[in-house]
TrEMBL record:
Similarity comment: Belongs to the LysR transcriptional regulatory family.
Protein name (Swiss-Prot/TrEMBL): DNA-binding transcriptional LysR family regulator
Residue ranges of every copy of the HTH lysR-type domain listed in the record: 1-58
Membrane-spanning residues: none
Organism: Thermocatellispora tengchongensis
Domain of life of the organism encoding this protein: Bacteria
Keywords: DNA-binding, Transcription, Transcription regulation
Segments of skewed composition (Basic and acidic residues): 292-304
One Pfam family linked to the record: HTH_1
GO molecular function, one term: DNA binding
Biased composition, class Polar residues, residue ranges: 305-315
Amino acid sequence: MELRHLRYFLAVADELHFGRAARLLHMSQPPLSARIKDLEREVGTALFERSSKGVTLTAAGIELLPAARQAVEAFDRAQRIAHHLRPEARHVLRVAITPDTSAAALQTFLESVREFQPDTRVAITEASTGEQVPALQHGQLDLGLLRHPFPEVGLHVEPALSTPAGALMATTHPLARQSTIRAADLAHYPLVLFPRAMAPGLYDETLASLMAAGLHVRAVKQITRLLGGLLTTDNAVAIRHPGMSFTGDLTWRPIADIPLTWRTSVVWTIPPAIPAVDRFARALAEALIRHDQWTPPESGKDHSTGTAPTSRPPR
């Protein structure tokens, strides 16, 4: 029995759905089902009851669940402690930021860390939500920055910051002449979203919101690199938040009848692997608020309903 089999078992036990568990584990469903069957063969009994009504734990699965969870949490905790026992790692803060975090926000965060703990070296990794979640689970990061929704098991999640999502396009785009656009306007142009693997939950929420507003999506392109070139040559429209850095050839507009709100949180593992992690987390959140137009919870209107806070004037 390998630790990864217990991780797979816990994911299915928590979700009671093989498809959702596979998405959380960033793998396809057939290999997950095969690994669960391997585990069931090893323990000599079924751990899940599969039927047309869904998936449930068997009596054996219920009995194994607390021990499996304790084993995985103990291993992850030991891994984090072992990393920080190395002399060269004791003063290293491992932080992951999303690819759209601005250089100004990063610089402000680093200055805050140096001011608070001058002997702490910060190791920055640029990674998507989809990449950060397993890295956090395996003790490879001390602090992460994730886009909601995401699996929160084993994580301390700071209050979510929010920002409106709207339409990013070339300044020469026909819609750029409008101060505000509507969902129906977008139906005539290819839409560009970030690749789903970067933040599966946010991708699904965003696409569902576009469709719920009556937008019949003609084409969805998933791209991050060379985005500016695509928007200026293909009359495409990207769904992005206004705080990301972009060139003078691009402009951002709110979508009046689609109140898209994206949310992000600074997170760390439970228990934290380093002291004062909450201080570092606050510094990162404050840098995002200052430079990247993220709004703190108390400044938004209603972050539970997806109602967007007041956005900046269009660029």
